[in-house]
Amino acid sequence: MGRTPDFAAERKRMVDRLLASGYIRDPRVRDAFLAVPREAFIRPEDRDDAYADVPLPIGRGQTISAPSMIAIMLEEARLRPGERVLEIGTGSGYHAALLGRIVGPENVVTIERLPDVAEWGRSNLAHVGLASVTVVVGDGSLGYPERAPYACIMATAGAPRIPDAWPAQLAPGGRIVAPVGATRHGQVLVVATLGPDGTLRIREGTPCAFVPLVGEDAWPE
Ligand code: SAH
Fold it and tell me: Does domain 7-208 have CATH number 3.20.20.70?
């Protein structure tokens, strides 16, 4: 204790490292990481690690991903301003905040199954001026048809397979970026693109370890 961290300087250093290691390539992704204060989305006791490249606990057994993992996902999504995005698994709201900085906060819907976690994420987003990100409570394994179609559906919890609802709620050319795996705690990052003929082109990327996606078309409770 006693140290007052210079979060802005730490944030800049984190982004420099993510650029140097090649995790960030898109200037829009870079600017989003520079704009969002990660310390506002983590528990006070973890603030010394706010800009370490590690996942952090956010309570209820859930975690906020390491910045490099989030960077990989945001790069894979190839998002442009104005595109509508559905995030599955609001958690702290940090990932949704980055999405909001890239596509515009009014274009982001994020869905969380645990009401108290959703409320915490919503208040974190409001504190950093992103109250126009829509936070809904519900089961993201069913997507969120009310605001479909989406240019991108991005999951931050691990699914046993891609739920049927997700491709059904994509716009033409839309992308799914999601950890998918045969066990509850190990996945590979899947990037799926909806082709003009309505079929999904699926590419498997980096191994990863997200908390499980729990829902009707996902893992049981
Ligand atoms: N993106 C978050 C981290 C998410 S951790 C962040 O930036 O902090 C994964 C979250 O997914 C947890 O909060 C968990 O409760 C939620 N989750 C799990 N299954 C879900 C489902 N079916 N629908 C919505 N949220 C779900």
Answer: no
